[in-house]
C-alpha cells in the first residue's frame, strides 16, 4: 500500500456537496458516489460518507412518541401491499433518514423500554411480530453506515488495522507496549502503541502511535485532539497518527502537526525511519 497524499479540500467539498444531495442513506446511494469518484479509493469514500451520515443522523434523530407512532402507521399501511418488498428501505428513503435510524424510531412505538429496543436491534428474532422482525432485519443489514451492523463493521476494521500495524512493528523489531500493558501500569487514556525506544521518522521524534481506520477530516480530528491526542502528547511526548483511509490536506497546516505529532496514511517504510532506532 503506497502512501496516499492528503485529500485536497476542493475534492472533499465536492464529495460533501454530492452527499448533501442524497435522498437515500442505504448502500445504493453510497455505491453511486463511489462510481462518481473513481479516483478516490473506495474505502476512503466509504469512510467519509460514514462520518457524514453519523453527523446527519445525530441532527435528525428525535426521540418522540409522535414521530414513532407516525412511522408505525406508515409501516402498517405499506405492509398491506401484497408486493410490499423492502418496506423499511422505502420508508427510510421517504423520510430522508438512514434505515437503521428509521428502525430505531419505529421500534420505540413497539416498546417504551429503550433497553428492550436495543436488544431488538441487536437480535431481531426477539421481536414477536415476525413480519416486523424480518423488515427490521432487512433495514439494519442494508445500512452499513449507521446502527448496530455498522458499529460491528467499524470495530472489526479498527481491530484489523491495529493488528496490521502491530505486525509491521514486530517485523521491524520495534519494541512497544500496547494499550493493555499501559492500562495495567495505571494509564487511563493510552495510545494504541507506546514505543519502548523512540524512533525518528523523517527527522521527527515518535514516542507513540495511534491507529485510526478512517478518513481524518477537521471535525473528527478536532474531537480526537481534545479527547485523546493532547493527553498522549502531555504524557509521552510527540507521536504519530495514522489515518489509514486518508486525511484532509488542511490538517497538515494546523499548529499541532509537526510539533506535537505527524500524520501519515500508513506506517512508513524502514528507509523513512532515520537511524531506524535512536537513543535519546
UniProtKB/TrEMBL annotation:
This is CDAN1-interacting nuclease 1. GO terms for cellular component: cytoplasm; nucleus. It comes from Euphydryas editha (Edith's checkerspot). The keyword Cytoplasm applies. Keywords: Cytoplasm, Nucleus. It holds the Pfam family TPD. It is found in: Cytoplasm; Nucleus. InterPro entries: CDIN1 (IPR029404).
